[in-house]
Amino acid sequence: MEHHPTPVTGGCLCGRVRYRAEVFLHNGYICHCTICQRSTGQPAEITVLIKAGTLTYTGDTPKYYQSSPDGKRGFCAECGSRIVWQALRAEDDWLTNVTVGSLDHPEDARVTRHICADTQLSWYDPCADLPKLVADQADLLVATLRAEVQPDGA
Questions:
Q1: Tell me: the pLDDT tens digits for 38-92?
Q2: pTM of the complete model beyond 0.85
Q3: CATH number at residue 129
Q4: Measured distance CA(10)–CA(18) in Å, rounded
């Protein structure tokens, strides 16, 4: 499995919010948490992590909504497209991620796991062969992601 960042561009439906970043395209995940379900209006959200410090907006910046004590969700104020989940603490910036659908080339992304599978809707089971982590396994998830995107332990 590839664990290196790839330069990408992306943006919202109307084109006002545009970004450049280095993302871990082959380490995407499907999040089934109820916050992702509500914020997208979908049964899950698919995202890829951004290499810390590489996200730059080249158009409008998103409007943000703090959805948890750990992060805020960025979306276009004009068209409402979800773009980014951004960590609130600087030391957690490596967890910041963009939605696969906002990438200019979403077909390049690869999904490697499901997270928060304990709240997965029974009728929605894409990529059923991938590993599934439940919310109680958050420490394992963070450790796994950290090993993939920060192999030197930084």
A1: 999 999 999 999 999 999 999 999 999 999 999 999 999 999 999 999 999 999 9
A2: yes
A3: 3.90.1590.10
A4: 6
